[in-house]
């Protein structure tokens, strides 16, 4: 039910509906939308600070420009909530029953006012340049404005710089709004921010100006949270005939004191109590991340040259605790995944023991660095990858590709632990050996305990948790419990005493065990929490290709899933124990006949 | 045999050997090394202009610093020939019998003066920052200088910017030498070069300075080809206690007029006549690239909104001819593969029909853009990929990964034509349809002609060139002729009348054909010019996993090959027709028993 039928926003179905409003009404709108952001985020989770900070500039954009004829492209697009409310999607914020109807990012399938699905940073300028170039070619007399909105934090990603560099070549309309709230996800990192501060401190007057250096027109806006100012600025630059950078100073979290006081915490929040600020879900007592940090702290304290590197997402890995204990060993390179990987390689070359913390979906941004710097050079960096999992989240952040894109590369050992003791055992070995880069896939399911069956992973010996016959289940990493359950049901339903294997690695195979399985097994089943195409299962398929062994693979198909509940996804993907057992049964029968 | 036993360079076994030389001797050394670069490059091919331009700064580095205690990291490292001659590898330039002993890039296995295998651009600053950070941690009192040498062209790659941004955080020794020769591989592209020009024009005095903006110390050197100047500059900055950018103006091709007059042609050259400048190999009469450009020109002339986009490598694709005919439809974004892909997506969204030209090894740099911008957004961009092949070249530029990293992604159709008519047929379809991004893998083998068996590739129907039984050969793209030869030998040696299939796509499979193959075939063989891990073959393995069909995959193993002649590599990889037939024979026999 609409929680606020009295709100002014109810009258806004299209952006044009705000054009007749006066300044006071527009300000009221901003206030309402801030409240709606907080109500929705506190109920279902979402980006808080980024959205609170851009209310005025969003309203001003839609007041001055004519969307979708004029086009705004939101970088990352996690700050597009107000844009969504003003472009026909207000019910997704007014009515809790509809909170889940609207995604947290722009999506052309939601609205003609969105042009791209976007969830990764630093793409908006390159996208805007492309839109402008297409306009100049296809529709040169359209007087269509193209506006990119990019945060200061996103500017540290190399693609943003590549975009700026090419934007400067354009000889037609392009407006790049740099939303400078002096924060990234965590703190801004790097020399760029010294320069931006100088520009803010001089009201944009400093002669040293990276944008002008590149030949871009430039204008500073001291208070981007003042609606009248933003309206005036947009009116002045509308239909400009060349690229301009609007450097707009805003406040992240504007209008909600807790989000201003703790900008990191309120960048994105899981559901929380709006009164107390407390999280609605309590943190688990023990976690894989905490165990990793404990181990790193212990190694530093034992005198090992261990360092921790990450690209702007320390919160995902509990790295605050490492930084607090060993600030000189902690490196956040900002949103710059390429740099994080390449720098880590060099630190290993120089004798340090770097441990990189990466998210599956963002590590994609450093693929060439994985190939050309990590795999080719073989220095013993260690990498922890989180978020490598089929998930109920946005398609923009799908974490199912990492096994495919890492396991196909030479020289990298990609380990998939099934429990916390095994993960720490792998981490210790990775930090002790000098031969190979090691990536460890942190499980994202319920934390399990266990006893590692080896303490060196230079050669992989499969851990055969149960020796059976006929069918062998290879359950990878976080899907270990699923493998156990499949075994249980195979026994119960089909009276098959299946073998259960922890393969530990998605890159190295235990050829001996695979060979001997052929003696008393007809079917090998692989279960992995990731993409089937190029995944672990296909490695096993290839091994058994020329033999009589039948192989069945379970994992994610080659598709994007967008905000689908996990139980539904598992059902779609044939990943419930019942479905897996049914599929095995069919092959067992075909093997008999 | 040493061609120049009288050269001064013969006395140089280690960098320290030049420290006692006087300026005239050092200048003589520069002249000799220029001659040796030209002799070697004209004989076996290599980078010309980049090496001729850095003679003085290389000699000065080794004269002033103490390598390998002090460390120089060459960006791309294609300009490291002089460094190699001065660090014990002169015979690779003096003696034609040893030309092939020394690779064209830095390589730690060649010399302790090299720290990384490097062949892709824009990595050196991030590497140098990592080396410096490791030094500060592991060896803080070592007074070790870390020097990165990066060309102006390489600065357009986002990773270079990420590196600069993080370099500015360093509070210890780091020297970033920007070797500004006013050229990339082709022309420099983008606003950055306006700013660099302003710095050159003002002798580094302009207040607008991107390096200082980021908080980096800065010094301009007007003539980086003057040995005395470079020695003095290096002496002054040696042991500096903070990061500094040396902006050094040099001339690409210095000392060899043809390389100055045509800097693009002499960036890298295949073997050529040193007197006439003529290529030793004549260009083939017809080529896949020429056919593609003919088609694009025709489409533009027919009024289609086709545009061509590339990232600094127009020469690889004959794009000069397209640019000459349709300059307004031609976009070179500089060395910025991420930007090229993201901008192309937006151009497609805006109604243009972008055709992207990418090299397999460099497209790796835009992997996240393939996932997050291309696959997720599904705009109908078209991409031509060259260099996707097992090659005799450097490990740094291995082109065997593209099938793995593209075919595992949703929504992208990756087509592998076997002949030029099929390639153009695929290109026409790709530019006509609106449903899907299409990538086309240009064959790198002998140009073949043929008749396409379909003209829409929305659904893939396998082209069964010959219907046989027992064994089916699926030969992908450039390996079509190999497939034909395997079929011939199977008939001749084993009297097997094998089926021969052109699968056309490495992403979509023809389930109907694969299904019916089971009726009268026992073995399916896949042959692809790329990585087996995550490749096309594994897709077929997975399809037949639960069945009785045996599958054999041929392709490249998960390893880097470094300058190995192709016939040797094929032998290693079991890719000669004889080996493939032998392997098939073994499985045929095992199937009988």
Automatic annotation (TrEMBL), chains A, B:
This enzyme's EC code(s): 2.2.1.7
Listed pathway(s): Metabolic intermediate biosynthesis; 1-deoxy-D-xylulose 5-phosphate biosynthesis; 1-deoxy-D-xylulose 5-phosphate from D-glyceraldehyde 3-phosphate and pyruvate: step 1/1
CDD domains, per database record: TPP_DXS, TPP_PYR_DXS_TK_like
Alphabetical GO biological process terms: isopentenyl diphosphate biosynthetic process, methylerythritol 4-phosphate pathway; terpenoid biosynthetic process; thiamine biosynthetic process
One CC-aspect GO term: cytosol
Swiss-Prot/TrEMBL cofactor(s): thiamine diphosphate; Mg(2+)
A single MF term (Gene Ontology): metal ion binding
Keywords on record: Isoprene biosynthesis, Magnesium, Metal-binding, Thiamine biosynthesis, Thiamine pyrophosphate, Transferase
Domain Transketolase-like pyrimidine-binding: 286-450
Enzymatic class: transferase
InterPro entries: Dxylulose-5-P_synthase (IPR005477), THDP-binding (IPR029061), Transketo_C/PFOR_II (IPR009014), Transketolase-like_Pyr-bd (IPR005475), Transketolase_C (IPR033248), Transketolase_CS (IPR049557)
Subunit structure: Homodimer.
Family listed: Belongs to the transketolase family. DXPS subfamily.
Protein name (Swiss-Prot/TrEMBL): 1-deoxy-D-xylulose-5-phosphate synthase
Organism: Limosilactobacillus mucosae LM1
